[in-house]
Amino acid sequence: MGFKADVIIWDFAARKIHARLQIHKAKVESLAFSPNDIYLVSLGGQDDGSIVVWNVESKEAICGSPASPHIAGHSLTIQYSNANDNIFVSAGNGTIRVWELDLPNRKIRPTECQMGQLKRIVRCIEVPEDDDFFYCGTSSGDILKVNLKTRLLNSCWPVKQKFSKGVNVLKVLKTGDVLVGSGDGMCTLCSGSNYTTIKKVQLEGGVTSIALRGEGHQFFVGTEVAQIYRFSYTDFKEELITTSHNSAVTGMSFPFGSSELFATCSKDDIRVWHTVTSKELLRIRVPNMTCNAVEIMMDGRSIISAWNDGKIRVFSPESGQLSSVIHNAHSMSVTAIACARDCQRVVSGGGEGQVRLWELQPGLHKLIATMKEHKATVTCIKIKSNDKECVTTSSDGACIIWDLVRFVRNQMVLANTLFRTVCYHPEEYQIITSGTDRKIGYWEVYDGSAIRELEGSLSGAINGMDISHDGNYFVTGGDDKLMKVWGYTEGEVTHVGIGHSGSITSVRICPSRKYIVSTSADGAVLRWKYPHPS
């Protein structure tokens, strides 16, 4: 509750912040500009419950008022009139109000709209150009038409077949037709005095936004599963133009020696992306499961993935077909995975702390060894280039170097941290680690001794790390949402990337050293220009 929720006005042309406005507590629910961009009206969330009118030019608050007439009611959305800078509408749980701005007295005065016996939760408001009426989309799947001048309910439609899972978005076109986006993912075009459905298209995920282009001859629809569709008004056919993860991205992998593609994993799916165009090439779905780690086999013929149901699943990268499954690979979730260069062996780590070596043959798999030293979740595995050694980190504060010939521990590094990630230096005589203590540790592989320690972040754990193939630079990312490039020998930050709005979960330098790709807990996948000559 103590946190202020910012309203930021951006200067679009200059790509700079015009004003940062702080009054609301905890959350800002909705915003609307007045028709001539003189004022901005903001609506606070449930804990705040206030409406504030701001002067855009002077960047100051003019006046404010509680949004709802009663404590139980909670306003959810706000919309300005199209012709009058002094009139706007707010609506929500059991309340629809038309507000008038009285500038000389610095007051906003509400009039409650008369709904009769109707009790509705309004999710969205749309005011057509002529300002005669306004439309309210409700959680119960019907649309209210209210007279803006008399503040009286005009009609409520549809009467019989309501929009499933509620109306999330409304847009009135120049033709008078109404576009409706509903919670079940249906985009519907309604027309005529009784708003009959003319066309409708089923999309993936509930509709969250509709943006008109020009006169509405083309429009864009966004959905809950982070997809954007383009529509043409004439043929009303959907074209999927942008996709993204809609939950935390847990891992990523480039194929060996190739920067053209990379794979990411998340809840429910693995996706393969084209690096330069950011287009999704393949989606492999496993419903109601979370993929914790993904690796592309060195020969490029299989995608190996670690899942929270304790299974390792192997997919074909061309078709996305499941080619084999290792059931009960770990007694708990499979949390980390790495592929050997011989393309026949895989090392996996689990939630119970075990490290296991598997042999994969077409159509069968064999457990070769189980190494039990970690006491908690294995978070990262890297295999040495000769396939005879690997290093694992765990949230028990141990980083262990294993002999993959005799299946014993060679060295153990202990630190007061939950280790998240580890990398071999390309010459493989040193490793670097990081974790929740925000430190980056350099260690000798031969005897496990500490070489140096860097302060990696001012706040939050470092979750992802990768070293360039020449060993001169490495990249890190973590809970501070900053992507950092470091000089390996100097231990100094050379570049900082600001762009993520969630904790960074993994980072990779692409093999061609043109780009860095980072993923985060809010579902984002960002591609950065690699700042040093390759």
**Helical residues, percent:** under 10%
**Helical run tally:** 0
Q: Report on the biggest sheet.
A: 7 strands, antiparallel
Strand content: over 45%
| CATH topology category name of the largest domain | Methylamine Dehydrogenase, Chain H
- Output the radius of gyration: 28 Å
Distance between the termini: 48 Å
Name the poorly predicted regions. Answer: none
Based on CA inertia axes, which overall geometry fits?
A: elongated
Question: Which structural category do the helix and sheet elements fall into?
Answer: mainly beta
What is the CATH domain class of the largest domain?
A: Mainly Beta
Within CATH, the superfamily of the largest domain carries the name YVTN repeat-like/Quinoprotein amine dehydrogenase
Named at the architecture level, the CATH assignment of the largest domain is: 7 Propeller
The largest sheet has its strands arranged as 23-24-25-26-27-28-29
In the residues, how many domains can be counted? 2
Write up this protein.
The protein has about 525 residues and is mostly beta strands. The chain folds into 2 domains: about 5-245, 7 Propeller (Methylamine Dehydrogenase, Chain H); about 250-530, 7 Propeller (Methylamine Dehydrogenase, Chain H). The chain has no helices and 48 strands. It is elongated. The protein starts with a strand and ends in a 5-residue tail after the last strand.
Short structural description:
By secondary structure, the chain is mainly β. The chain contains no helices and 48 strands. The protein has a seven-stranded antiparallel beta sheet, with no helix packed on it. Strands 3-4-5-6 form a four-stranded antiparallel beta sheet, with no helix packed on it. A four-stranded antiparallel beta sheet has the order 7-8-9-10, with no helix packed on it.
